[in-house]
Design goal:
There is one protein chain. With 502 residues, the chain is an alpha+beta fold. 50% of the residues lie in helices and 14% in strands. Strands 1, 2, 3, 4, 5, 6, 7 and 8 form an 8-stranded antiparallel β-sheet that branches. Helix 11 packs antiparallel against helix 12. The longest helix has 25 residues. The protein is elongated, with a radius of gyration of 29 Å. It starts with a helix and ends in a 5-residue tail after the last helix. The relative contact order is 0.11. About 1% of the residues have low confidence.
Length: 502
């Protein structure tokens, strides 16, 4: 009997002798390794977008702020009773891993066109991290950091853009949102009392805004990555150091080292296996393809000069929309030109009425923003079904994309021809639109500030699938009209540049 129990007693003594640091290290390695593996394509895509000038680099700053907030909560930790029954932890953690799988495998493909705008895979990664944390450390210890989890959830990529655009969309606006987030992290870290929390928030925000303003004054065109990193981390570090020194003033005796507590949840091999298996499966779920913007060179000349109408058409009106600066940069412009045919054409209208088209020209120096905000996001439409796109050769190496949008609310069909070219430091996206209502008062889609092309359609797509937003049997009624007009428009701009007109 004694011999039979010796291995068991030896194993128990070995478990008790293990240092808490070693136990925590193993669990953190499994958790962080799983997050890195499961969403490795996401981290690569975010790095590529950041290198191209997108604002998504802030996601790499969030873990630093989370660490600042979490260490404050951890230092206020009270002794916890050990958790022996891990069944509840395994169930809840497994549910969140399934949610992560559903978001990446089922929800993300439905919003492939707005992938870089919403980055739902980041939400999936956070869900996986939350579920994995429960599996590794237990539901009760993880729940004690609720304020840190709210901090991470509060600013999704879409939410970050919404708040920053609401503040004007400038570099300072994007930096300010991060500084506010750093203020919340600082308040959580030092907030043993409500007064200390508000004081920590105020000190962090004021310091961060001051640093951001100084950086912009010294270098107005500084990379957005540095505006997101330096003021936030710098302000949090300065605030934390000041609070520490104030708390320690007059007390120069050595501090008693804090004892590192062992995890209250016992080791569960099944939890590790579930987390690792989920990470491997998530790794093989592909992300939407990254849109490749054409690099065709357009005509030289100033982008502020309106387009010349092609032969057979006359320009009848020009409208400029200044709200695009908040989305595409302070130097961005959006101009709508209305052009009407000089004579009717029976091939375009059975009654030979002169057709009208509008040309929306978006010019920006931030090329990466065109991938973040697809052409459809310039228009706030509801109950609209979109067809597949057809390539159209417009000459000069320019290839357009032609598709239709059917409005069930207005009972009209718009046909769009979109192409992109590079003009010096500016990238221009040109959208030519016609409507199947040939009357003079026909309604065209109006450019409007919108973070998503259609919130109602987005909700419907989530609930009912892509079928409600896709026109599976399109009629390209104005294909000949827009093809002829598009070729003439491209040719006319080049002829003006060369000093000749046909």
């Amino acid at each position: 009997m004694t011999v039979a129990t010796e291995p068991t007693q030896a194993l128990a003594r070995w478990k008790q002798s293990r240092h808490p640091a070693g136990i925590l290290t193993v669990r953190w390695v499994v958790l962080l390794g799983g997050v890195a593996l499961a969403f490795f394509p996401t981290w690569v895509r975010l790095a590529q977008e950041s290198a191209d000038g997108a604002i998504t680099a802030y996601i790499f700053v969030l873990p630093l702020l989370a660490v600042v907030a979490a260490q404050g909560v951890a230092r206020r930790r009270a002794d916890e009773l050990p958790i022996h029954d891990r069944q509840t932890d395994n169930i809840v953690g497994g549910i969140f891993l399934l949610i992560s799988f559903a978001v990446k495998a089922l929800w993300l493909p439905r919003y492939a066109d707005q992938y870089e705008l919403s980055h739902l895979d980041v939400l999936a990664a956070l869900t996986f991290f939350f579920g994995g944390s429960i599996l590794m450390f237990g539901l009760r210890p993880v729940g004690r950091f609720w304020s840190v989890w709210l901090l991470l959830i509060a600013l999704s990529p879409l939410g970050y853009r919404l708040v920053a655009v609401g503040l004007g969309g400038s570099r300072l606006a994007y930096a300010s949102v991060m500084v506010l987030l750093a203020g919340v992290a600082g308040a959580i870290a030092v907030g043993r009392t409500a007064r200390r929390g508000w004081l920590g928030f105020g000190c962090t925000v004021l310091t961060g805004l001051l640093v951001a303003e100084i950086m912009l004054q010294l270098s107005p065109q500084i990379d957005i990555v540095w505006l997101q990193l330096v003021p936030t981390v710098g302000a949090a570090a300065v605030t934390g150091s000041v609070f520490y020194l104030v708390a320690r003033r007059g007390r120069w005796e050595p501090r008693r080292p804090h004892r590192l507590a062992a995890p209250s949840a016992k080791w569960s091999p099944s939890s590790v296996l579930v987390a690792v298996a989920a990470a491997v499966v998530l790794f093989f779920i592909p992300l939407p393809d990254r849109p490749e913007l054409p690099t065709v060179m357009g005509p030289t000349g100033s982008v502020s000069t309106p387009f010349a109408a092609p032969a057979g058409f006359s320009s009848t009106g020009i409208v400029e929309f200044d709200w695009v600066r908040a989305f595409f940069g302070t130097r961005a412009t959006l101009v709508r030109q209305t052009m009407r045919a000089d004579e009717g054409n029976s091939a375009w209208d059975v009654r030979a009425r002169p057709r009208t088209v509008v040309v929306d020209v978006l010019s920006t120096t931030n090329r990466a923003s065109l991938a973040v905000y697809p052409e459809s996001t310039l228009y706030r439409l509801s109950d609209t079904r979109t067809s597949r796109s057809l390539p159209v050769d417009l000459g000069r190496g320019v290839t357009g994309s032609l598709y239709t949008s059917v409005s069930d609310a207005l009972l009209v069909t718009w046909t769009k021809l979109v192409f992109v070219w590079q003009r010096g430091e500016f990238t221009q996206r040109v959208t030519i639109i016609s409507v199947d209502n040939h009357d003079a008062d026909a309604a065209f889609p109006q450019p409007m500030p919108s973070m998503a092309s259609n919130l109602g359609t987005a909700i419907g797509t989530f609930l009912r699938g892509n079928a409600i937003s896709i026109d599976g049997d399109p009629e390209y009624k104005d294909r000949e009209l827009l093809t002829s007009f598009g070729k003439g428009l491209v040719r006319e701009q080049w002829d003006l540049t060369n000093g000749s007109r046909r």
